[in-house]
Amino acid sequence: MAESPKGVVVDPRVLIAGGAVAIFGLVVLSFFLWMVPNAAAREAKAACAGMRSTGPALCGGEPCPLPMQAPDFTAADNNGNPVKLSQFRGKVVLLNFWASWCGVCKTEKPRLAAVAEELGGDEITVIALASDRAWSDVLLSLVDGLSPRTKLPDGDVPMADALNIYKRALPSGVPFKVFLDPPSGEGNIGAIASSWGIKAVPESALIDRNGVIRAYFANKRDWESPVAETCLRSVIDE
C-alpha cells in the first residue's frame, strides 16, 4: 500500500529570517542607489572647488562669489568681425585669457587643444582670448605652442608671412576659437581681460549654458588631468 505524500513543513523562524534578509538587502540596495548620485555630485563639486581660485575681481575690487553671471563682451575674430560671448549661450564655454608674450600660456595650449578635440562640438566651446595688438603675434604664438618643431623667424613678422607660416604648420587650424583682445593704453593686458579684473595671464573661466561662471582658474592648468576632466564634465552633463 502506497504511502500518502507528506506536505513540506517550513519552520516559521526560517520565513522570518529570510524575510529580514530580503528587507535588509532592499535597504542596502536603496541606500546604494541613493549614495551613487550624491557621491558623484560631491566628487564633481570637489573637483571644481579644487581647481577654483578666488575668482575675477568684478565686484568692487574684491573677489566675486561664484557662481555669478559672466559679463558679456565683444571681441574680434581673425577677419575683424565682432563676436559676443553671449552668442555662445546654450553651450558650455571654457574661456581662456592668454597672450602671445606669455610663455606659460604657450605650454598650456596643447592641453587646451586636447580638451577642445575631446570634448568639443556640441558639448563645449573653448575660446582663447588673446591680449595682443596684432594677429601676426597671435598666429606665430599658436604655431610655437602647437607645432614646436616649426622654426620661427626673429623680429617683427608681416601679417602675410605669419599667416603663411601658420597655414603650413597648422594646415587644419586649431580646435578652439581665437579672438583678439587688444590692450588699451600702454598696458599689456587686453581691455576685456582688464575689465574682468585680470592683471596676469593665463586665467580661465568655466561658463555654463546659461552664461554663469561656475569655476574660475588662475594660472595655467593641466586640462587633461582627471580632476580637470571631472570638473568640466560636471558642468557639461547637467
Written description of the protein model:
This protein is an alpha/beta fold. It has a single domain, classed as 3-Layer(aba) Sandwich (Glutaredoxin), CATH 3.40.30.10. The chain is built from 6 helices and 8 strands; from the N terminus they run H-E-E-E-E-H-E-H-H-E-H-E-E-H. The chain has helices spanning 12-51, 103-119, 135-146, 159-169, 191-195, 226-236; strands spanning 68-69, 74-76, 82-84, 92-98, 124-130, 177-180, 203-207, 212-218. The strands form 2 sheets. Strands 1-8-7-4-5-6 form a 6-stranded mixed beta sheet, with helices on one face. A two-stranded antiparallel ribbon has the order 2-3. It starts with 11 loop residues before the first helix and ends with a helix. The model is unreliable at 1-5 and 30-41 (pLDDT under 50).
